[in-house]
Request: fold
Amino acid sequence: MSTPGKPLYRSDKLLYYALLPFAAVVIAAFILLFAVLGYVSAPAIKKYGVRLLTTSQWAPNEANPARSVYGLLAPLFGTLVSSTIAVLLALPVTISVVLVIEEYAPERWREIIGSIIEVMAGLPTIVYGLWGLEVLAPLLQKHIYSPLHQLLGFIPLFSCRPVTGFNLATAGVLLAIMILPYMVAVARDAYRAIPFTYKEAALAIGATRYEYAKIMLGLAKPGIVAAALLGFGRAAGETVAVALVVGNVPLVSGCLFKPAYTISSLIANQFSMAPLYPYMMSVLFTGGLILLAIGMAANTVAVIMIARARKRLG
Amino acid sequence: METNTARGDNEALTRLRGIGIVGEASLKMLLLILMGLVVLDIVIQGVCCIYAHRGAGASQAQQSPRVVLSGSGSTFIYPEMKVWITRFEKENPSISIIYNPTGSGTGQSQLLKEKVVDFACSDPPLSHEQYEKYKGQVLQMPVIIGAVAIVYKIPGYNGPLNLSAKVIAEIYLGKIKYWDDPEIARLNPGAKLPHAVIKVIHRSDASGTTEVFTFFLHKAAPSLWPASLVGKAIEWPVDSTGRGLGAKGNQGVAEYFKRLGSAIAYVELGYALENKFPIAAIRNAAGRFVKPSPETMQAAVASALRSGVLPDSPLADWSNALNAIVYAPGEKAYPIVSFSFMMTWARYPAPKAAALKKFIEYINTVGQSEIVEGYAPIPQGLREINLKALSIIKGG
Amino acid sequence: MADPRIIKEKVFLVTIFVLTAVGVLPVFHVLAEVLVKGSEAIARHGIGILTSTSNGILASLVGSAILSILASLLGIPLAILAGLFVAEFSDTKIAKITRVVSQSLLEVPTVLLGMLVYIIMVVPMGGFSLLAGAVALALVMLPYVMVHVEQAIESVPPMYREAGYSIGMTRAEVLIGVAAGIARRGIATGVLMGFAKAMGETAPLLFTIGAARTTLPCSRPLPLANVLDPGDAVPLMIFQYAQMPQRLYHDMAWAGSLVLVLAFLIVFIAIRLLVKEVKM
Reply:
């Protein structure tokens, strides 16, 4: 691999310093965000501390604001679970789509399928949310959740009766649909970049299509991981569409069919009245801060891991 | 060996030549696209401004100086506010009004704390503490009456339904489970109510609608519904039975309600009417079962006005207004009514003050006869109180 | 006796085709719904629903156009240049930090990004503006475009770079002349994704542009200065109108969705036609 490190020669240094300001702007914007989030969250953290993370109760007290109880446990749980479900659902589809577009579909279909996927990215998130509310949730409840509950109800995940389709599972499915185009775009780029020589070599040793795909995917792994991370982040940050289908009840439960909360839908639900309560706005911002911190931790680990994998692949 | 490297070099060179040219071309293309965007933006803005200033189609001929009033707040009042803004702008082409329905709480803070808007609309009035903080600087005017309707869906039954605060409270406490419960039957003799489970829909987001509804339950049935269960967002006892559902916004409640086979919900009247949901008749303080209508809504406010429990000036403390109009005395009064307040400062730069006063005057005179379905106009007495703002707001 | 390897292959092929179909199907349904409901709305109320400010959504359409362009102008160049930096100098600490930072930006609920811009722009300016909305959208789209650019540049096979170095090109020339050229499809996709985000996001606009629905942003004589005016956008309009009871507003929301989707399709086709594939 060509030297990805610091520039050595004068002309390269020019490039480095020419591009550096833009990266610096990105970092500066992030620091600003972190600072503002921290500043607004500080009162809540000071008052409630760790209690914010250990309770799901959301009980603002108007008569006696000092006695309000706010808990971020349920929304945090919901965000992590729904984003995980979304990525788990979207990843196999992403890989399938990439393989179909790049290898197995007839020539004309490739551009068509690829374009359809990219169009998915351009739909306003609110339209997805309305569609999820009117079409997806009832459909899933009738044809998937109820049968699952009846047949596999002994599994804790399906053990509660799905009263409506507005729950974590639906949020996960809707999010999976929404993050798919982004994941496909990233994974596809990674897959395309595999030089033809590798493909020739795999075919030359007589691999079946299945074995060939396994080899190619292994080579594209850093890109696929990047796609998964992108999808997870996107799912965690989605606000409007999730708020319409997740049920909006502060509940933590092992069952996927119960209504739940995510941090972003909590904010969407509560922000309109939050300024009237002394600490609520601060708590909502704390939720955002926690998400940011988790994201930073996860992405740092991922970046280090990907860099190591890249070095190995050369 | 040497020949190989030479050939390799040539190959690389040819490949690169092809791609290198392509590479520079794409960069140029990108720059072109970006410049094109800038030009496109200028064109769009230019065209739209020409269109606007011609006044064709758009309902304003804009001459400078033009005054822009910006407001934000209650989503509940938005349909009415939109009608008012459209009609007012038609009569007053030099004034533009924008209104961003982000919620009552953010409306209040955007007006009072961050000062990014000129007026705010809020369903709850300023709390007593807030009032004391801004005393003399902020005006509050109740400009419209709203009502919370109790809608019901009973499998196999299409007739009318009478409900009392006691019964509703017990449903939302989780104590009454079936439609054929004796408590419900007692209020509806002769009605064939089935033995079906009642799904109970409430709000998941903080809302003035919930506040009015829970306040009514507390005022009319205090032994069942304590003060701790009154507020914009509460913990609903019925949730622990698994029969409760939280929906986001009045629209969310309407959506859930449409999809369930057997349910009860509380929702702003406009949504019940638009979707033609069956609306229950609620027992008021005089013992009569009353359905919400402009007549019964006005009756409630008028009786509160008559008893003198409402303040008499925009500068007064309106924090107790809900207590005055909910479950108000009067044969015809509908017991679950609410106000939506318009809030302003007392001082503005001169042009804004003049424009704002014109708007307030319009709302409290002509505007009260242009009422959207689901709301009721305020009685004449209240209009006169609100119009006192015209002498309170000062410009300069 | 069937070869187990062949069986595995057949099962594999069926699986991936089915999964692809499952992934692609929903968007058809969504598009169909937008098409049907949007056309019904326009049929019911006439074209005036799109061209009027008092009874229609003209302000939302104009605002969306201006916002998308503005946000793209702010966000895309920044994202591309920062992405090039991260991809080219990926071993340096700053590049790694930038990568972590931009990807973490994704996980913040979009509504909070809007509130950030509210605090640092709207409040000091004393009012809502299209510019604030554009800045919020640029913040939201930044990670998407960056990830695409990084991914595209890093996927350029080393042999092309080495070929460039071997004939004496500098890093800058290799990056811009060779790598960017090969990666241009990926970069173009990144630009497209960024533009799509700018057109389709709702929450960042809630507290920044002001929902000015009955007036066009035209209070100043100089066209570009009008970005300081409050404005409106289609996704915000849809979000706020969908919550109102009256069917008229729901119709306007669907009509707006239809126009937005059509506009995106046009841009999409344009970019696809302009930027061609690079065969390796």
Q: What stands out?
A: Chain A has a mean pLDDT of 84. The two ends of chain A are 6 Å apart (CA to CA). The first helix of chain A runs from residue 10 to 48. DSSP finds twelve helices and two strands in chain A.
